[in-house]
Amino acid sequence: MQRYVAFFASMNVGGNRLTMAELREALEREELEDIETVVASGNVLFSYEDRPTDGLSEMLAFIVQDRFRFETFAAVRNAAEVRSAIEDNPFYGEGEDNLVHTLFLEGEVDPSGFDALLYDHNGRGKGARGPERIAKGPRCLYIDYAGGVGSSKLTGDFIERRMQMRGTARNMRSLQRILDKMEE
């Protein structure tokens, strides 16, 4: 059995209310094992047969849609991928751990989408929208929200429209706590 984490998007926002106990129960019915929620809502550790994480992402999103009637995206990663999301983030160690994020995407970064994101974020030549720094990684973006996440104009919706794919972000502090739990 392989240990995974599912980073759920859009959970417990808007009308998508769901307790972690309800989610755990639904996942246990689908033969996932050792289910545990970590840090905050939307982070679920579990064990399952070793398989590509893309298929698991689709399976978990389907379970939530089928059982709870709302659409979500689940970025599933194994411990090596979570470690990479921390260690390969070029802003890790430079910015504050609560402001440096890895945005997990549902697919590989398309260079044209990434270029559109940078172009629009940099103000289309008219001045930057904010102080954030952005870099691309494997099925993720690395972001330093140097001016603060809450006041940033670099929102999830802004990124998803330019990248034309869904994503969900976690900061370095949360990722380290999740990795520590995965490696216990």
Task: Give a verbal description of the structure.
The chain is of the alpha+beta class and 184 residues long. It folds into 2 domains: 2-80, Alpha-Beta Plaits; 82-182, Alpha-Beta Plaits (2-Layer Sandwich), CATH 3.30.70. It contains 6 helices and 8 strands. It has helices spanning 20-29, 53-68, 79-87, 111-121, 156-163, 172-182, and strands at residues 2-8, 33-37, 43-48, 74-78, 100-105, 133-137, 140-144, 167-171. The strands form 2 sheets. It has a 4-stranded antiparallel β-sheet with strand order 2-3-1-4, sandwiched between helices. Strands 6-7-5-8 form a 4-stranded antiparallel β-sheet. A hairpin with a 2-residue loop joins strand 6 (133-137) and strand 7. The longest helix has 16 residues, at 53-68. The protein is globular and about 55 Å long. The protein starts with a strand and ends with a helix. The model has no long low-confidence stretch (mean pLDDT 90). It comes from Aurantiacibacter marinus. This is DUF1697 domain-containing protein. Pfam families: DUF1697.
CATH fold-level label of the largest domain = Alpha-Beta Plaits
Q: Averaging pLDDT over every residue, what do you get?
A: 90
* Share in helix: 25-40%
What percentage of the residues does DSSP assign to strands (E)? 15-25%
Order of helices and strands: EHEEHEHEHEEHEH
Shape, please?
Answer: globular
Number of helices: 6
Reading side by side through the largest sheet, how are the strands ordered? Answer: 2-3-1-4
Low-confidence region ranges: none
For the largest beta-sheet, the strand count, sense and barrel status come to:
4 strands, antiparallel
Total E-strand runs: 8
Rg to the nearest angstrom? 16 Å
What is the CATH C-level name of the largest domain? Answer: Alpha Beta
CA-CA gap between termini: 15 Å
Task: Please state the second-level CATH architecture of the largest domain.
Answer: 2-Layer Sandwich
Structural class computed from helices and strand pairing: alpha+beta
Pfam families: DUF1697
Protein name: DUF1697 domain-containing protein
InterPro entries: DUF1697 (IPR012545)
